[in-house]
């Protein structure tokens, strides 16, 4: 059973914990699909959403998750808070604790920042993306989307193509999927694959064809232009032509293979529009999985806090 104060990464989570989150998330997803958006699992609780980096999907889905569960959700924009006056993360955390926040959802450009916050506050901390380190709830929602289609993650071949070096999504997925018995194949320009991914269990492929061949899931990752140092690849056009996925390449995957992308998408770069809008694309479905997974994580962490 999930007995965690914080959810910071999938590096140290067990397959049992992942299954518990996904099972509950599936229940929540079914309920939302039936139009149920008023639940009371987090009645009387406060969830503060503290983002030091831009976001559309993650921020809104955490807010929806908290509200659907009956909690009060508070958004703090780092640019308009005392953070902009130079307040340290630890002092911000102390303030949020003094206000008796129950959960803090944090996104931060520095890897490890949520770990520091979690050590300092009594509130439960959920990592909503820390630099290029991890984005655990994104990988959980990706796994929920895959599991809903295939019934199980065991034995699936998941091909991940794109900017793996700067992707916290790639790392969290690798940790989670390996624990659940899936195979993870990666392909990108060599400059966009960090050393050691193979030691963490990824199969590093030599071509798009090798990565896509027989894949059950094709996951594109955004070229993270805001984190790019010069010289990783010649131009976006050349990236698209040599490393992107188009419909012809998609046909190398299994006939019923699904397409995923965490968003936001650079249309026509990592995936062509034909692939993004393909009938087997589950990119929009991932968004609803995101609300459900965040509801499940908050609910289970709340139960752990109550000692249930
Ligand atoms: N939204 C995801 C993240 O925050 C993926 C991306 O930005 O490319 O990591």
Characterise this structure.
By secondary structure, the protein is an alpha/beta fold. It has two domains: 141 residues, Rossmann fold; 148 residues, Aspartate/ornithine carbamoyltransferase (Rossmann fold). It contains eleven helices and nine strands. The strands form two sheets. It has a five-stranded parallel sheet. It has a four-stranded parallel sheet with strand order 2-1-3-4, sandwiched between helices. Helix 3 packs across helix 4 and helix 5 crosses helix 6. It starts with 14 loop residues before the first helix and ends with a helix. The mean pLDDT is 95.
Question: Brief overview, please?
Answer:
This protein has 308 residues and is an alpha/beta fold. Helices cover 39% and strands 15% of the residues.
